[in-house]
Structures are given as C-alpha cells and as structure tokens.
Amino acid sequence: MTVPRRPEAPEPTAETVAITSGRRAVYLVVLVLLPGLLLALAVPAAWGWGIGPRDVVIAAVMYLISIFGIAIGYHRLFTHRAFKCRRPLRIVLMLAGGMAVEGPVTLWTAEHRRHHKYADREGDPHSPWRYGESGPALLRGMAHAHVSWFYTARRRSNLRHWVPDLMADPDVRRFDAAYPFVVVLSFALPTLAGGLWSMSWAGAWTALFWGGLVRYAVVHHVTWSVNSIAHTLGDRPFRTRDRSSNVRWVALLTLGEGWHNWHHVEPTCARHGVLKGQLDPSARLIHWFEQANWAYDVHWPDPDRLAARRRDRM
Ligand SMILES: [Zn+2]
Ligand SMILES: [Zn+2]
C-alpha cells in the first residue's frame, strides 16, 4: 500500500544572511570612505580651480540619470511595483539606477523591502530611532541610518527571501552579473562626454572628477538622506506606524523621494508627493511614460484613501 505524499511545504528561507568580512570591507570603502573623501576633495577643488559650465552640464545630467534611476527604477518599479512598463524602459531604468553605484538592483530592493516591513521597529536595517529618542541617541541613530549601517551590520537581507520575483527575472540576473561593468560605465560615460566635448585629456579628467566621482558621492548622500532625515525631521500629515516624514529640501534633491510619509502609508503608490505644492518630478516622468504607452497599470493615489489617512481628519 502506498501512502499518498502530501504536497511539500516550501522551505522557509531566512530573512537575513551573514555578511563576509571581505564584503564588509567593500561596503566600507565604496559606501562610506570614498564618498566622504571625494566630498572633502571637491571643496578645495571648487575653491581653487572652480568648475566650468561643461562639467556642470555633464554632472547635472549624470545626477538626474542616477537619481531618477533610483527613484523611478530601483525604488518605485523594482521594489514596490508601483507600475508596469515595457521591457526596453525597464532595462533603461535598471541601468540608470545602476549609475548611482548603490549596489545591484536585487540587493538594494531586498534591503528596502525589509525596511518597509519593519520600519522603525526591531528588524529595520536602518532606523534612526534605533538607539533611543534622546538627543545624543538620535544623532547616533541618524548617523547609523545614513551610512553607518553599511559597515556595522553583520547581516544583510537574504535575496531568496525578499526578492524571489527579481531573482526569477532573466534581465535582472543579467544586470546583476554585469554590475561591475555598469559601475565602470557610470564613470566612463562622463569621462567620454568631457573628452569628446572638449577634445582634450584635461576635459576628460575634469569631467571624470565632477560628473563621475563627485556626482557619485553627492548622489549617495542625497539618497541616504531619505533614510536618516525623512525618518526624523519634517512633518507627518498622514497616520503611519513608523516615523516616516516629509522634508521639502530632501524631496527637491531626490526628485520626489523626500515626501516619505505618504510613501509609508501606501508604498505601491507611484506618486509620493500627494499633497498640494509637493513637487514630485519622478511621478511626473512616470505620468509621461504612461501617456507614451511605455508604462501601464500605474497605481495613482486614491483621494478617498488620502482623506482617510489624514491626521487632521480623524
Ligand atoms: Zn522609509
Ligand atoms: Zn519604499
């Protein structure tokens, strides 16, 4: 007699895995030391030699590509599935996000999905409230949420647990495998643009410095401000279980991501700046993609949901 086999339950996967010391060293250099050093170097360079209009244009274009790539690609599309889009646009958005040098899309997404699940509670990889609410504890917490967690964390999000959807996507797997080349491209593109524009080696070098290196450092600190500043300062017009907040200058620099309060109410919403006067260029661009039929099934905010979650209308 044969006993009918019960369908096997899927193996539970751990939420986090240990980080090797080699990987921690890479995080320390690429995510903490190098951006800090470059920002420190940029000050005397700007003071001493200045920055010409050519490098301003190249750096600004690279900045917009990187920040839009993170906001629209890595964050709203890949992490939260706020919209669907055609394959060429998906690949372009993934590449643009890669220009920010903030890691492969799978790892970025895994850490961010874990942040949303545990926001400002035990298990959040980067809550500024981790050490308490007193002044010194909060300052320490903000440093932790900004960059310290990159090298103090002993565990990172397990890709198999958090991003099985992305791991099953052949385009994402190819992108992750090619990630070191994407990083090279992030510096090669501005260098090439500066060299060809000026037809000189000096032009290539200054474009590498401003449009490549300094831009990468600025993009990092601007992105991490959402984790450190937009979970502490600012206002909270909506009711959430966490301390996510809206900070106008962070929203301006991140092209909409600093309107972080509504984002924690409804992470799948394609628009973060949902109130009057809250400029959200990333949402505007998604709207243009939708009009061009490149993006579809876009989750736009629902006025009834907005009203229901307002603090002043309880
Ligand atoms: Zn958050
Ligand atoms: Zn998010």
Task: Please specify the SSE layout and strand pairing.
Layout: E1 16-18, H1 21-48, H2 53-79, E2 84-85, H3 87-98, H4 105-118, H5 135-152, E3 155-157, H6 159-162, H7 164-167, H8 170-177, H9 179-198, H10 201-228, H11 248-253, H12 260-265, H13 281-291, E4 295-296, H14 303-309
Antiparallel strand pairs: 1-3, 2-4
This protein binds zinc ion (2 copies).
3D structure, described in words:
The chain is built from 14 helices and four strands. The protein has 314 residues and is mainly α. It has one domain (16-313). The structure holds zinc ion (2 copies). One zinc ion binds next to helix 2 and helix 4.
Which short descriptors sum up this protein?
314 residues; mainly alpha; two-stranded antiparallel sheet; 61% helix; binds zinc ion; fatty acid metabolism; Stearoyl-CoA 9-desaturase; oxidoreductase activity, acting on paired donors, with oxidation of a pair of donors resulting in the reduction of molecular oxygen to two molecules of water; oxidoreductase; FA_desaturase_dom
